[in-house]
Design brief:
This protein has helices spanning about 5-20, 25-35, 40-45, 50, 65-90, 95-115, 115-120, 125-130, 145-155, 175-180, 200-215, 225-230, 230-235, 240-265, 280-285, 290, 300-305. The model has no long low-confidence stretch (mean pLDDT about 90). The chain is globular. About 60% of the residues lie in helices and about 0% in strands. The longest helix is centred in the C-terminal third of the chain and has 30 residues, at about 240-265.
């Protein structure tokens, strides 16, 4: 005997019918397709086999696998950060609770990234690293396009300009010119001759057009721009300001310094600072007191801004 359709099931069927009718689709076709589909599994949903096949070391050093997987995890977390930023940037009616909660998520991702540097600093054999790192030349973590996009989507472009050139650049400056004076250009550019290292020129060849388009998109909807567009009473909300301060300091001081110390562990042997694989002058490029990367200047006091990065 066939069971009668329960009211709750009938309600779902009607909702499905409405859903597919709105996109000019036949519900019967989709239900018939459902009959043929296989149950989902964890490994199919996560694509475990594909994920675990992405580690392709260039040497026989066991710890190179640690290095590769660590950076792949970083890139996945960067993607999560960009997804949260995108939600804030495009939110039609931004509220304190939504803004703060998304900043909290982003900060937790970077808190995780910060604490994970112990994997790099304590989890790899120094001798192995100093051998396999030579095969990475001229690649560098500097070339993470997602991390650059996180910066572009977090603040106004002027706050990412090399501190030496900020006075000569404003909102009317062409994007291409502004990109030539970003703080991270200092990692691979001779400002006297204009010559760029292969590290930088290859990076720009791959991503410059994408970066120009991305900075144009986020020019008025980056996190700092969205904050400044809010009513004054909202901008003064302590919960929101605390969330912004935590994110700003976490990304531009805490995380950066954890990276700095991990690099120092391997590249500074006490006698001579070893050059980074990409050839960058990493000590000055990375330390926050030199480039003064600050996403949200409005939420810091004048004294805090003046002493940025000096207490680490």
């Amino acid at each position: 005997m066939k069971k009668p359709i329960q009211p709750d099931i009938e309600k779902i069927i009607n909702q499905l019918d409405d859903k597919y009718e709105k996109i000019d689709q036949d519900l019967d076709d989709h239900l018939e397709g459902l009959l043929q589909s296989k149950p989902i599994t964890y490994w199919d949903y996560i694509h475990t086999d594909a994920l675990l096949s992405l580690q392709l070391p260039r040497t026989s050093m066991p710890d190179e696998n640690v290095f590769i997987m660590y950076h792949q995890v970083n890139e996945l977390l960067f993607k999560m950060v960009l997804w949260e930023i995108e939600q804030v940037a495009h939110h039609p009616e931004l509220t304190v609770d939504f803004f703060s909660s998304r900043l909290g998520r982003i900060s937790r991702y970077f808190d995780m990234l910060t604490s994970s540097f112990s994997i790099m600093q304590e989890g790899m054999d120094v001798e192995q690293y100093m051998k396999f790192r030579k095969t990475l030349t001229p690649a560098s973590g500097f070339q993470s396009a997602q991390y650059r996009k996180i910066e572009f989507a977090s603040t106004d472009l002027i706050n990412l300009i090399d501190n030496r050139f900020r006075a000569s650049i404003d909102r009317n400056t062409p994007y291409e010119h502004a990109l030539e004076h970003l703080y991270w250009q200092a990692a691979g550019k001779d400002y006297h001759t204009g010559k760029k290292s292969y590290l930088l020129s290859a990076f720009e060849e791959k991503y410059k057009n994408d970066f120009v388009a991305f900075t144009k998109e986020y020019n008025t909807i980056n996190l700092y721009a969205r904050f400044k567009s809010l009513p004054q009473e909202v901008r003064e909300n302590q919960k929101l300001r605390d969330a912004m301060r935590h994110y700003d300091y976490t990304v531009n001081v805490t995380w950066v310094m954890s990276h700095y110390h991990a690099a120092n562990h391997y590249l500074n042997n006490g006698e001579k600072v070893v050059e980074a694989t990409g050839g960058s002058e990493w000590t000055k490029y990375m330390h926050p007191k030199y480039q003064r990367r600050i996403f949200f200047p409005d939420v810091w006091t004048a004294e805090e801004l003046a002493n940025w990065g000096h207490d680490v």
